[in-house]
Structures are given as C-alpha cells and as structure tokens.
Amino acid sequence: MTISYNWLCDYLPVKIEPQRLSKILTSIGLEVEHLETYESVKGGLKGLVIGEVLECSPHPNADKLKVTTVNTGSGEPLTIVCGASNVAAGQKVIVALPGTTIYPIKGEPLTLKIAKIRGVESHGMICAGDEIGLGESHDGIIVLPVEAKTGTPAATWFKSFLYDDHLIEIGLTPNHMDAMSHWGVARDVCAWLSHHENKEYRPKGPSLNAFKVENNSLPVAVSIGNTRSCGRYSGLTIKGITIRESPQWMKDKLKVIGIRSINNIVDITNFVLHELGQPLHAFDLEAIKGAKIIVKNLPEGTPFVTLDEKTRKLSADDLVICNAEEPMALAGVFGGLHSGIKDSTRNIFLESAWFNPTDIRKTSFRHGLRTDAATHFEKGMDISGTVNALKRAALLIKELAGGEIASDIVDVYPDPANKIQVILKHHYLKKLSGKNYHPDAVKNILLSLGFEIVKEGIDAIHVAVPWHKPDISLPADLVEEIMRIDGLDNIAIPASITISPSVENDASQASWKSAAAHYLVGQGFNEILTNSITNSAYYSEKELGSAVKMINNLTAELNILRPSLLETGLESVGFNLNRKSSQLRFFEFGKTYSTTGVGEYLEEDHLCLYLTGAWQDDSWKGKGKDIDFYYVKGLCERIFPLLGLNAPDWEQLEHPKLHTGLAIIADGQTLLEIGPVKTDLLKRFDCKQEVFFADFHWSSLLALATKNRIEFKELPRQLPVHRDLAMIVDQALPFEKVERTIRGVKLDKLQEVKLFDIFESEKLGKGKKSLAVSFTFLDEEKTLTDKEIDAMVNRIMGALEKEVQAEIRQ
Fold first, then answer.
1. Model confidence over 246-256: pLDDT tens digits?
2. CA 807 to mean position of chain CA atoms
3. Which of 670, 604, 677, 609 is nearest to 639 (CA)?
C-alpha cells in the first residue's frame, strides 16, 4: 500500500520526520518496504532561471540552428546555440545554465557543460517542456509571458506546478484492513505516540459539522434483496453539480499514490477511499430509473456492460446494484457503462455501503476486475463508517463541484450486529508475550486503538472490539495489538530457552541435494528459482487435462501450477539471452504438480538443467567450444555417482518438447531425460540460440538411492590391462547397443568400456562405419595372463559378430 507523507501529516497532531515515521510504522507492524522522495517535476527545476533573448541570428555553420544572446539577470549575457524553430529575440524563456542537471520526460538526466556546437561555443540551453519535465511537448521552447522577471528562478515561476512529498510503501498484512487509509495509519501512529510519550494523542479527522440537508427534492428509495451480501447501504442525492477538473492540491495527493485524476467527482470518491478507507460510488441520477436502488442477485448469465465497455455474463452469486429496470454496477467492484459520471452529469446519487468480503473477492476474481474498491471490501470494512464517509464526500463535492444536498441520507441497515467482546486475562498476556504489562498501559493502548472498555478487573480486562478491526475475535489478537504498539523490541530476551530438538529421519536426502548443487556450481552453473504458478497458455491440452488449476489466481496469466519446469526455466533463459548474456548454465530444484481428480494431487521433485552458449571461451590455445549433446550427457552422468548409483544405461527418447534425446529408465520409472529443446518452443520464449534441457526426476532418483547400499573395499593391488578393438558396423547402429552387447557377456573382470574413435568412409562399404573401442580388464587377486585376456576378448568379439553383425577389423 502506498502512503503520502504530506497527506498523512494532515491527520497527525505533531510533525514527525519521514525517517522517524518510517521506523515507527515498521515497529507497529506496518512495515515500510520503501521510502523515497517524490517530486512532481523531477529535480524541482533547480538551476533553471528565466532569461530574455536579446538577439537571435542564424548559425553560420548549420541551417537548422540559431545563435542567441540571452540575459539571465546576472553577469554578462550568454551565447547559447538553440535548435528550436520558435526561438526569437524579445522572448522570455527558461534557461539551463552550465552545471545544471535537467531531467527530461524520456531518457536519462543530463548535466550541462559549456560546449562547442558546429564551431560556436554554447553557454547553456534554452529549454522545451519535455526537456525539463514540464509536459510532453517538444514542438518548441517554452515562451513565457513578458511580465516574467529576468533572473527569477524557474521554480519560483512554476511553483504551482511543483509538489514535493515522500512516498511510503507499506507491506500491509491482510489482517490490517484498519490501516488501509491515511486516517487509519494516523490512528496507529497516535496510539504509538500516546504510549511511548505518556501523552494523549488523537488523529485529526475531517470535520463533518458543516453537513446539512438543504432539501428533499430528489429522494431515491433503497431496498436490499440479499442482506447477507449487503449488510448496510447508505446514500444521498446531490443536485446542480458541475463536472470539472479537480483542484491542484487534490490532483497532487492522488498522483503521489499512483491515482490518475479524472474529474472532480470521481477524484473525490478516490480521495475519500484513501483518506478514510471507505469505497464510494457515484451514479448519474438520470440512470437510476424509477428513483429506486435495489441491491440483489440476478439470474445466471445475465449480460452486463461494465465501464470498460466489455459485456460480461453475470454469475448468480454476483451482487448487483440495480435500478427499477436493469443492473447499474457490480456491487463493490466495478461500475456500469451507462450509469457512470459524464461531463453532462448535473445530479448524482452517492453510494456508501458494506458488502460481504468473501462475495466481493469472488466476484472480483471471477471477472478479472481487481479494483481499489474490491481490494478494500474483500478485507472487511468498518460497517459503522458508511454514513461519515458519505458526509465527508458530500461536503467535498459541494466545495469543489457546487450543488446542494437534495435528499435525506438513506441508511438501510437491516440487521445491526453487536460488537464482538473479548476478555483478556493479564496472566495470559504475560504467558503469550513474555512480558509483564502494567494494567494501565494495556488499557491506554486499547483505548487509543478504538477499543471500548466494557469491564475492568484485577485479573482481566473486558473490551468491545471496534468495527474497524474485524480480524479481532480472540484474546491472542489483543495480545498482538498490545505487543506491536508497545514494541516487540521491548520484550526482554530470556537467559535460557527450553526447546525440544527436532529429529531428522533421513539426513542423506538433504546431503545428496547439497552434493548435486555443489557439483553443478563447480561446473559454472547458477541456481535459479522460478514461480510454481505459471501460464496455462504454455502447455498442451493433454498436459492441461491433469494440471492443477488455480481457483483464486491473481492474474489471468498466472492460473495453474506448473506441470513441467521446462517452460518456467525458458522464461529465465529468454530473459537473460535478450540482455546480452549468451552463455548460460542454470539449474533448479523444483516441483511439478498434477491431479487425477478433486482432492487427488501429486507433487514430484525435479532437478532441471538449462544450458546454452559456449562452455569454453576462445583463448590463445584455440577456439572455444559450444555446449553440445555430449557435454550435457557427461555432466548428467556425473550426478549419479554423487548419489551412490552406478553409471546408467541410456535409451532413445521420444519427447514432444525435445529433439532427439536420451532417457534413463529403471524399474519402469523415468530417472532422467535430456535433449535440445525444439525450435518452436524456443521461439515462444524468444530464445534465439540452441538450448539443452535435462530433467532429473529427483523423487524417483532419491527413492532408488535410498534403497542402494554403499559398500567400501580397498584399492586393487594389481595393474589394469588395456586392449583396443576396431569393428565395422551399420552406420545407423547406435553405440549404446554395442555397449549393451559387450556388457551382456558378463565378464566380471571387465572394468570399463570406452568408445574413442568413429571413422566413416566409402572404403568401408556403403552405409558402414568403424568404431574403435577400448577395454580395461582387472583381476584384483592376481596378474592377468595374455591367455586369459585373449579369451575374454574373443568372447566379446563373438558376441558382437552375433548380436550386432559386427565385422572385426584385424
């Protein structure tokens, strides 16, 4: 939530410096995430002065430039080169002197220096509006009225346009709806001041004493058809208004917190919303047919055109504000196209209501309408404040738009509820907070926050909860209020703490994850963490059939839990590639999600690698090397020994998102899939170079690793023996089948099989290739003889000739 410092100070009884105020807000649970200086015109026009153009002549070396002599009110006149077509002698202009920093509407700030422009020395700049932040126009320089005094600072002349403030960004937690307004924040600050300075402070609220009903010439009847969804509805009529621009002070306050000025009536409703926290809505009285307001639900599928000119099909659960004939607004969410304020509007009906938070939230998400009003209503409103907000807005409208109040306040409150009452025992407060609070301090804190003392005893205090704190219903809630106003830092840290140590059932899973992460970091990888909530448009209909869909998604683009990590990872890859980072090695531990029906959900852990670009740069030793399939395969194979697993057997992979790839499958479970990402998918994420993807099914890998038993043995005393073998095979035969055939001979003394050469030539025969394979043999008990080695090699050759029709080269 955004707060204006100047606006907040309007309600504080004492002035507090922004930095101190920031610390106070954070200490009371309204954490200040960002504090910055706000300037309506960046730089505040510092260093700019009003000058008079004494002479203006064409530039000797440039057709479109002019050389001017400008009096700036001090010292000798300055020579300034100007490119504006409208510059002329006798004009009063704005001049930026050398050393001045200007802040254009577009582009970076610029500090001016004395410079030669086409051979003529220029001592400053005559400014256009967009060059100094005073508007968007670049048609020419700003020409001031003749009465502008030469040498006057531009900030003095334009002081009505300049507004300085401090912007306070508060990370508001959902339970603090009472602080969703400037007056609500001021109330909490005053509570802190009262407690810590032992002096009573009260926030200064706007005066409503001037409110009065001038006549009852335009009454509007109100009825509530759904009292569960609409607990209170207040309204009044104002006639004879004039729609115009808001005054500058209101525009400034709204602009600071990010609200664009529209007209005086709409701005007033926005102003009161952020002042008091109560959403309001203004209807054009002509649109209220039959002079009736009916709050009700309409049949499923009823069409309704909203202010954004879109026709929406209403749900039977949507609460709607209707006139005698048709709907006019989605209650608490968005207005209708034909009932809103227009330039021709002269009479209005002003609405101030309490709507059920759950219903408003569902309607807002259902139609994708996340408005300020909905955000306030869905957190729970102060049901007692509707009439006061109505009076405040009515007085502002009379002040800024004219008119007269032309009806009594209609206030339909069908089922007034009693305030929630809570009993807080002092020993419970001590037990939960860890601090002894004096009963008087407890009482004063609660009173300053708006609580009403029902009964006070030696052992407990009995309070009624104010309407602006709908989240409070338990003694623990009161403890939280007391602790935050007193200050969490004021609770002493005990000398000793008694805890029960946690017992970790299987530490090996965390150590395996750590080992894999450390290995990858050592290979030049960076770890990324992408959002588990992603865009359903990334996935196929088949994937979406088992995807977990979000019911309360915050945006239309983030609406499912990801069924695959590839797409969310490619978002990061594409983002970095488009910012000139062309060599990327990312890894991510994350989850995928799927469902087989309501209540049946599956989460699976994954380790995914994303690689693109070069893995070795150019150097004096030779050219660099790009990441290729074999580099990725080798990296992935090294993960398995880290988990205590043997080197895997690879299988061909057909994957809808990858080009020709490989997979490792054990006991019917996929452990790993690797391959280059298909081009059409890369284009979707704006990746303009090849990207390799590896997906470890981490849950399955850990299950396999847990079953595996690691055994230790001493290093062999004997030396290994190496033999090479060359063979001619079909060109299409993958080496994986050759290796599987060799392993199938089951020689316990065969330690390693390695392919070290592939040779292709027409001399070998059409469709043929030569493979050169190295074998490593070892007997740990004794030295192998040539006879034993030859026997094993012969068995291998026989198997190759039989199984893969290999022709052994002599």
1. 999 999 999 99
2. 63
3. 609
